[in-house]
C-alpha cells in the first residue's frame, strides 16, 4: 500500500463534530419521514394525506433536530468552558503542581522521567493552557463544541433526507417510498463510512438493515389500524 509524503496523510478525526450531526440528521430524516408515510399509506389514506404528513414530519423533525443538537452541544461547550477556566486558575496559582501533572501524563505515555519533564517544560513555555487542554482534557480546536454548526448541520441534513421520502411519496405507492428510501439510506451509509474512513459495505448494510425494520413495523401498524378503526 502506497503512502503519501510525510505530513500529507489524510485523517478524518477533524470531521467528527459536523459529520456526526449531518449523518444522524439525514438518516433520521429519511427513516422517520418514510416510516411515518408508509404507516399512513398502509392505513389506506389518500396520496395527498400521505404527502402532507411527510411535509409536516419534515418541518417538525428539522426543528426538533436543530434544537436538540444545539442544546446537547451547548452543554458540551459549557463543560469545556468550565474546564478551561479551572485550568487557567490552576496554572496561575499552582504552576508547579500542573507541571508535575503534565510530566506524569507523558510518563504514562512512555517517556522516561527526565524526558517527560523536559517535554512538559518546553510545551508549558510555548502554550501552557493549550497544552493542558489538549493533553490532560483532550480538548483541541478541531473537536471543540460548536452548537450552531451542529444545529444547522442536523437541520439541513434532516430536511434533505426527509425531502427524499416526501418526493417518493408523490408516486402514491408504498413500495416506491420504501425502495427509494432504502436506496438513499444505503448511499448515505456508504458516504458516511467513506468520510469516516470505514468500510462502505458495512456502513451501508447496517443503515439499510435497521431502516428496513422500521419501515416494516410502521407498515404493519398502519395496516392494522387501517383495518380496525
Descriptive notes:
By secondary structure, this protein is mainly α. α1 packs antiparallel against α2 and α2 (47-93) crosses α3 (95-108). The protein is built from 7 helices and no strands. 81% of the residues lie in helices and 0% in strands. Residues 1-9 have low confidence and may be disordered.
List keywords for this structure.
81% helix; mainly alpha; 7 helices; 229 residues; disordered N terminus
* Count of domains: 1
Number of strands: 0
Query: H/E element string?
Result: HHHHHHH
Structural class by sheet pairing and helices: mainly alpha
The shape is elongated
What topology does this entry show?
Layout: H1 16-42, H2 47-93, H3 95-108, H4 113-135, H5 147-169, H6 174-196, H7 200-228
Helix pairs in contact: 1-2, 1-5, 1-6, 1-7, 2-3, 2-4, 2-5, 3-4, 5-6, 6-7
Short précis:
With 229 residues, the chain is mainly alpha-helical. The protein is built from seven helices and no strands. Helix 1 packs antiparallel against helix 2 (47-93), helix 1 (16-42) packs parallel to helix 5 (147-169) and helix 2 packs antiparallel against helix 5.
Amino acid at each position: 500500500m502506497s503512502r503519501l509524503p510525510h505530513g500529507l496523510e489524510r485523517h478524518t478525526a477533524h470531521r467528527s463534530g459536523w459529520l456526526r450531526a449531518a449523518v444522524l440528521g439525514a438518516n433520521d430524516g429519511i427513516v422517520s419521514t418514510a416510516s411515518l408515510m408508509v404507516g399512513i399509506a398502509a392505513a389506506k389514506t389518500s396520496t395527498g394525506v400521505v404527502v402532507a404528513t411527510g411535509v409536516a414530519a419534515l418541518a417538525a423533525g428539522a426543528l426538533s433536530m436543530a434544537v436538540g443538537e444545539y442544546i446537547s452541544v451547548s452543554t458540551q461547550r459549557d463543560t469545556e468552558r468550565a474546564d478551561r477556566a479551572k485550568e487557567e486558575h490552576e496554572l496561575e496559582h499552582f504552576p508547579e503542581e500542573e507541571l508535575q501533572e503534565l510530566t506524569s501524563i507523558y510518563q504514562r505515555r512512555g517517556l522516561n522521567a527526565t524526558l517527560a519533564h523536559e517535554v512538559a517544560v518546553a510545551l508549558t513555555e510555548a502554550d501552557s493552557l493549550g497544552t493542558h487542554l489538549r493533553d490532560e482534557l483532550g480538548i483541541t480546536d478541531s473537536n471543540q463544541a460548536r452548537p450552531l454548526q451542529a444545529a444547522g448541520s442536523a437541520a439541513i441534513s434532516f430536511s434533505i433526507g426527509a425531502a427524499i421520502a416526501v418526493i417518493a411519496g408523490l408516486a402514491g405507492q408504498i413500495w416506491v417510498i420504501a425502495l427509494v428510501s432504502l436506496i438513499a439510506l444505503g448511499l448515505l451509509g456508504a458516504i458516511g463510512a467513506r468520510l469516516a474512513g470505514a468500510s462502505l459495505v458495512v456502513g451501508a448494510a447496517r443503515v439499510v438493515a435497521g431502516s428496513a425494520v422500521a419501515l416494516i413495523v410502521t407498515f404493519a401498524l398502519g395496516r392494522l389500524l387501517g383495518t380496525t378503526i
